[in-house]
Amino acid sequence: MTSSGRVTIGQPAPGFTCTAVVDGRFKECTLSSYTEANHWVCLVFFPKAWSFICPTEIRAFSSRLEEFLYSRSCAVVFCSTDSEHCLKAWNAASEMEGGLGGVHIPLMSDCNHQVSKAYGVLVEELGVAQRALFIIDPKGLVRAVTVNDADVGRSVDETQRVLDALVFKDEFGEGCPVDWKKGDKGIATKTEMEGKLELKKSWSEWARPKLTRAWSGASQRSMASVISMNQAHALARSSAALELASPTSDESPYSQSSASGRASPMVSPTSGVSGQSQMEEAMMLQRMENLTAAMQNQPVGLAN
């Protein structure tokens, strides 16, 4: 497990000041020395010196160091938790002896584990760094992160391809599609906005157009039929209530209103039927009419 969270893309790269072996000599190596010179930086962590996969990577990157430095203004620094003396002896030894044979890439010593911890790639139980690679731009921001299995080496070509894509994106503001290589065309990644999203301020503003459609055409006829039906039911209930209240008395004020064919002033013709329920019933009838019309337009298959 790593000691802390790994630095993610877009974050400022943690600074460092370490001793590095450069052409057999000890030199102070800092991140700021590269960014102040407007250089990109490939900070490459490897597990340990005198191993099997690590020397293949370091020799491959060293043989193409000029392609990074002069064609891309990018420094390449390899870093491990070995001491500076171990790295110096390893670089000075020949390939037959398991050494590097004198590479020119800086080999940075992180024997106190501070850099590996800062970048979140330290394997604490082993005291070594993961096989991780960080591409840092001249502003000191992390732009790419890759972490491989300890026994899987990295590709110089892929590292340069990603670096070229980042430089292209910064220069032209376009994205780079799959397998993009230097010289290929980019893709515009910005979407033009067509105004702002307009939100209704209240429920009535949202519902008014829908209610207007529900009241139009056949919906109005449906509403009229519902209201008439509800009024008829209400009048019937009113008449029944009057008969029960005064079955024989001719002097009751209720009998006069019944005889005249009018509802009692004490009973509303539409009592028990709210406008909301009428609206809901009308809209339900409209939905049924729409469903019936849609079904009539569909072909009906006959069973054999």
UniProtKB/TrEMBL annotation:
Pfam families: 1-cysPrx_C, AhpC-TSA. Residues 247-277 have a biased composition (Polar residues). The keyword ATP-binding does not apply. Residues 244-277 are annotated as: Disordered. The keyword Oxidoreductase applies. PROSITE patterns: THIOREDOXIN_2. Keywords: Antioxidant, Oxidoreductase, Peroxidase, Redox-active center. One of its GO terms (cellular component) is cytosol. GO terms for biological process: cell redox homeostasis; cellular response to stress; hydrogen peroxide catabolic process; response to oxidative stress. One of its GO terms (molecular function) is thioredoxin peroxidase activity. It comes from the Eukaryota. This is Thioredoxin domain-containing protein. It comes from Friedmanniomyces simplex.
